[in-house]
């Protein structure tokens, strides 16, 4: 069973929510704001379960009837709003699942909790419909809005909610989490946590993704061999890279982080800070071989390549030009 202790890196928010629970000052509307993967859903689930727990503690007990139902996803007083279309939550959906439903008293508890994931997908009419409920909520209602981007919410909704901003999680915390909870080997956990930039959900996905590991193995091979590859081999590598077009952002980011590591070492940076700590020797070797100018050009070119591919330039050709720059012709 999950509790607030399972959420990492959001201590301020948890402390705040615990305080609200123990002081009996739970509000009618909360907005958890932060990008995907920061743990909004898990936090909302645990908060909802705590509010309905029959033991009335600051964490769900996990044993009462209400907790048991919540854990199996069947607590009738926790309503997770669903939407049919992937990119929008319609006014009808908000009316059916929240505005009208909230008039019905809770089944077994003194509260009824609504969780609206992807709340930023509510169109203006849907947000306005919800606003009516927030203006005069029944005493038992708690509505939790989870949004990736608060800027997409009406200011009137924001002002009626307690807004809690999810933090990016520190790399070391993500690292420990991946190693402890998923038994992911150190170097892979390190790469994934650096790559996810504070986004725990993304780090977990990356660290456990076969696809990402495969991509990394291939990119790694090129990064290490590029200086000894001739033009024929480079053309072949570019051709092979065309198969990774769907992962182009990850592909380019992996390369970008590599050359940033090389540049950092060249500038006398601390090897402890390396993202590719496993490859320290190779990075040091490359730091000796490339000039500052060459490294800056490569980094710039990787960024340009990302933009050029977005504007539909031939992917294989773009990769070939980039590889040639990396080789240092
Ligand atoms: Zn309980």
Task: Please describe what this structure looks like.
The chain is α/β, with parallel strands linked by helices and 329 residues long. The protein has 2 domains: 4-165, Rossmann fold; 209-328, Up-down Bundle (Zinc Finger, Delta Prime, domain 3). Helices cover 54% and strands 7% of the residues. It is built from 15 helices and 5 strands. The chain has a 5-stranded parallel β-sheet with strand order 2-3-4-1-5, covered by helices on one side. α14 packs antiparallel against α15 (315-327). The protein is elongated, with a radius of gyration of 24 Å. The model has no long low-confidence stretch (mean pLDDT 91). Bound molecules: zinc ion. Residues 53-55, 60-61, 63-64, 66-67 line the site of zinc ion.
Helix content: 40-55%
| Second rung of CATH, namely the architecture of the largest domain | 3-Layer(aba) Sandwich
Q: Return Rg in Å.
A: 24 Å
Tally the helices: 15
Write the layout of secondary structure elements.
Layout: H1 11-22, E1 29-33, H2 40-52, H3 65-71, E2 78-80, H4 91-99, E3 112-116, H5 124-135, E4 141-147, H6 155-159, E5 162-165, H7 171-182, H8 186-196, H9 200-207, H10 210-225, H11 231-241, H12 248-266, H13 280-289, H14 292-310, H15 315-327
Parallel strand pairs: 1-4, 1-5, 2-3, 3-4
Helix pairs in contact: 2-3, 4-5, 7-8, 8-9, 10-12, 11-15, 12-13, 12-14, 14-15
The structure holds zinc ion (ZN).
